[in-house]
Amino acid sequence: QVQLEESGGGLVQAGGSLRLSCAASGRTFSSGNVGWFRQNAGKERAFVGVINWNSGNTYYADSVKGRFTISRDGDKNVVYLEMNNLNPEDTAVYYCAATFDSRWYTLRRTQTSSYDYWGQGTQVTVSS
User: Fold this and answer.
1) Virtual torsion, Cα 107, 48, 73, 85, nearest 10 deg
2) How buried is 50 (Cβ within 10 angstroms: 0-12 exposed, 13-18 middle, 19+ buried)?
3) From CA 107, how far away is CA 23, in angstroms rounded?
4) What values do phi and psi take at 72, rounded to 5?
5) What element of type H or E holds 68?
6) pLDDT tens across 59-118, in order?
7) Does the N terminus or the C terminus of the chain have fewer Cβ atoms within 10 A?
8) Is the dihedral of CA 119, 91, 89, 44 positive or negative?
9) CA distance to 56, 86, 94, 101, 109, per residue, from 105 (Å)
10) Coil, strand or helix: which one is 73?
11) Three-state DSSP state, 17
C-alpha cells in the first residue's frame, strides 16, 4: 500500500516563498512520475507540474512556469515543490500524486486520471 503525505503548506505574503514536500511510504520512488496539483473549493483539481523520477525531466503549467520548481531526493524518497514569487491566485490546497508508470507523456501527466496514488493535500494561502 502506497501512501503519500504532503507537508510544508501555510500562510505567506504575496511575493514570498514556500517549499512543499511529498513523502512516500510503502514503496520507494524508484521509477515513475510524481505530479503536483492544486484545487480550490468548487473548482476542478488543476495541474501544477510533474517530475519523471527516472530522468528528472519536469513539465509545468504555464501559470507557474518560472516561479515553481519540482525536484526529487532519492535518499529521502521525497519530491519537493519549491514555490517562489507567490501571489494570491496561488492560494489552494496542493496535492501530490504518483504513478509508477515511468513513461514520460507530458500531456497525459497533466490529467488527474494519469495518477494512481494521491496525498491528502496541504493548504497554501497567499495574502495580498
Assistant:
1) 140
2) buried
3) 24
4) -135, 155
5) strand 68-73
6) 999 999 999 999 999 889 999 999 999 999 999 999 999 999 988 888 889 999 999 999
7) N
8) positive
9) 13, 28, 22, 10, 6
10) strand
11) coil
